[in-house]
Amino acid sequence: MTRPANDKPMTPFAANPFIFIFSAVLLVFVLGYYAWGALDHLGLAEQQASATVVDKHYNAPGETYRTTIAGGRAWTQVDPTPDTHVLALDVAGQERTVAIVGKDMYEWLEHGDRVTVRMHRTRLTRRLEVIEVTR
């Protein structure tokens, strides 16, 4: 049996174009996500400001669970979560943000105490991110 002269072999794209289009769209979204994060966070100028402790919150250590299905079986795995010491801060009397600090700093500070924060503001989302809290 011979093939007609204009009959070409089927290419993978012709066989299933969805997988190629879906892969390209997925790649664009993943690259866009990381580009957004890089643009929003990289190379930000650090600032220093005075802040007031307006609230303190302690999150006890615990466990979180996740289920993975492998080989047709469900495997529940335990992931430990550490304790966190969180301060709610009023920065320069204008904006509130939070900072995670060590246990010593958390126990030392009280409501209304003044602290110095080293921070930066993200470019696109305009959030204040605290880098360090000092007394």
UniProtKB/TrEMBL annotation:
Keyword annotations from UniProtKB, A to Z = Membrane, Transmembrane, Transmembrane helix
Which residue ranges traverse the bilayer? 18-36
**Mind telling me what this protein is named?**
NfeD-like C-terminal domain-containing protein
Record the organism: Variovorax humicola
